Amino acid sequence: MNGRTVLPSTGYGIRCARPAEAGAVAALLARAFADDPVMAWMVAGPAGRGPRTARYFKLAQRQQRPRAGAVRVAATGGGQLLAAALWSGPGQWEPSAARELAAMPRYVRVFGVRGLRRAAEVQNSLHAAHPEAPHWYLPTLGTDPPVQGRGISTALVREQLAHCDRLGEPAYLESSKPSNVPFYERLGFRVTGEIRLPDNGPTLWPMWRDPRPGAGAG
User: Fold this and answer.
1) ∠36-198-176 over CA atoms, to 5°?
2) Residue among 24, 22, 10, 150 nearest 80 (CA)
3) CB 115 within 8 A of CB 42
4) pLDDT in tens, 34-61
5) Where does residue 199 rank: exposed (0-12), middle (13-18), buried (19+ CB within 10 A)?
6) Main-chain phi, psi angles of 155, to 5 degrees
7) CA torsion, ordered 207, 210, 215, 218, to nearest 10 deg
8) How far is 117 from 203, CA to CA, in rounded Å?
9) Residue 46 carries which DSSP code?
10) Helix (H) or strand (E) segment spanning residue 134
């Protein structure tokens, strides 16, 4: 999974993000999540939300980096990033307590005091609902708005799902927008319940995908 998968007919390829691209990946994800209800609930107030969201996604990448191939992108041959996904392998989805504690000052700068409480509530709610069975976890997927609707995110996710199928391993995610549920259902995920955030916060939909025997062969 560390190599580059080239899709010549579409003019872009799928590969691991390079460390030097962390800022560009974060900016892309901030644009993709500009109307995300959970992100808006955590990052209180519209003032400065874009830059603060970008700082959050840069921090999220730092938390993912110990995992090989955890940050994957769809990019053109010229280096333009089109979409990004963060993945965690089985047994690796939860950062260590030491890493979370070390990152706390950065979380405060992203969310502020009020937002930090809400971010903690989101994390606690997601952790409580997280399945115990080993699986691949997709916490973040985003496509740059100007190129949405062209199948780029589909290709990005399908590459990892083919890997899951070859290994016979399931995948899991939470959709923060109801409009995204059909997208994931087309990729083989199914809704397993609802995660309702406290204080009249938004709802998320946990989704699970069983591996498809033989689908990843080739």
Assistant:
1) 25
2) 24
3) yes
4) 999 999 998 877 667 889 999 999 988 8
5) exposed
6) -65, -40
7) 100
8) 17
9) S
10) none
Could you count the other beta carbons within 10 Å of the beta carbon of residue 94? 13
Distances (CA, A) of 12 to 25, 53, 122: 16, 26, 34
The four Cα atoms 99, 207, 192, 94 give a dihedral, to 10 degrees, of: -10
> Using the 8-state DSSP alphabet, how is residue 43 labeled?
S
DSSP secondary structure, 57-87, as one string: HHHHHHHHTTSTT-EEEEEETT--EEEEEEE
CA distance 161 to 45: 36
Query: What distance in Å separates the CA atoms of residue 66 and residue 209, rounded to the nearest whole number?
Result: 25
**35: burial class by Cβ within 10 Å (0-12, 13-18, 19+)?**
exposed
The model's pTM: 0.89
Instruction: Find out whether 202 and 41 touch, Cβ atoms under 8 Å.
Output: yes
pLDDT of 159-209, one tens digit each?
999 999 999 999 999 999 999 999 999 999 999 999 999 988 999 999 999
